[in-house]
């Protein structure tokens, strides 16, 4: 597990791909995991790695509050994709079946026997990975969508929200909840596939209806 060298272009690309459908390194709020990874990056990611750059700028805004973020700092190599080798100086002794020396040594010429063994292990490794069942992680999210004022057409606001149709998103029940001064907010339930839909994406899509929507908040978040 790991991102590789986050001071290299390759490491930043791995981070960018990892964050393509995630808001944070772990969970759904900023945590010490984000701080560990953030501090391992030498400079802001380039503009073409926009997922990593978005995350970097967001975590940077927590500079003064980073010590109070939840979680416990762990080694950098414990975060990131499971199929990327940790090159941050982790222990060389590993009993994990996935930790296989696939490339041999650079210091001496590889013998035919060693080459054959390496290729057999590589084939076994790929076969093992292919047989692992894909687990679809889902979450139930309750959203609070707030209008601008008491004159906002709430039926139209809800119509706009439900018009957001993407793979991995299913809208559920909804209701209007009074918030004061004659204003009501839309409280709407949805179920998402975690790898396809994140709260950042939902907020971006919903607040894009700026004629009706003032803001969106996550009222409840539960793993299914």
Would you mind describing this structure in some detail?
The protein is an alpha+beta fold. Among the domains are: 9-78, no CATH class; 138-223, 2-Layer Sandwich (Alpha-Beta Plaits). Helices cover 30% and strands 20% of the residues. The protein has a 4-stranded antiparallel sheet with strand order 2-3-1-4, with helices on one face. Strand 2 and strand 3 form a beta hairpin. Helix 1 crosses helix 3. Residues 90-108 have low confidence and may be disordered. Residues 83-114 are annotated as: Disordered.
Layout: helices, strands, pairs:
Blueprint: H1 9-18, H2 32-39, H3 50-60, H4 112-131, E1 138-147, H5 154-162, E2 169-180, E3 183-193, H6 199-207, E4 213-223
Antiparallel strand pairs: 1-3, 1-4, 2-3
Helix pairs in contact: 1-3
Compose a concise summary of this entry.
By secondary structure, the protein is of the alpha+beta class. The protein has helices at 9-18, 32-39, 50-60, 112-131, 154-162, 199-207; strands spanning 138-147, 169-180, 183-193, 213-223.
Q: Tell me, what is the CATH class of the domain at 138-223? A: Alpha Beta
- Strand content is 15-25%
Which sequence of strands runs across the widest sheet? 2-3-1-4
CATH topology descriptor of the domain at 138-223 = Alpha-Beta Plaits
User: What's the order of the H and E elements?
Assistant: HHHHEHEEHE
By secondary-structure content and strand pairing, the structural class works out as alpha+beta
Quote the average pLDDT: 85
Amount of helix: 25-40%
Question: Could you give a short account of the major beta sheet?
Answer: 4 strands, antiparallel
How many extended strands? Answer: 4
The tally of helices reads 6
Radius of gyration: 23 Å
How far is the N terminus from the C terminus? 25 Å
Question: Which shape, going by the Cα principal axes?
Answer: elongated
CATH architecture of the domain at 138-223: 2-Layer Sandwich
Report the CATH superfamily of the domain at 138-223.
Answer: Ribosomal protein S6/Translation elongation factor EF1B
Question: Which spans of ≥5 residues are poorly predicted at pLDDT below 50?
Answer: 90-108
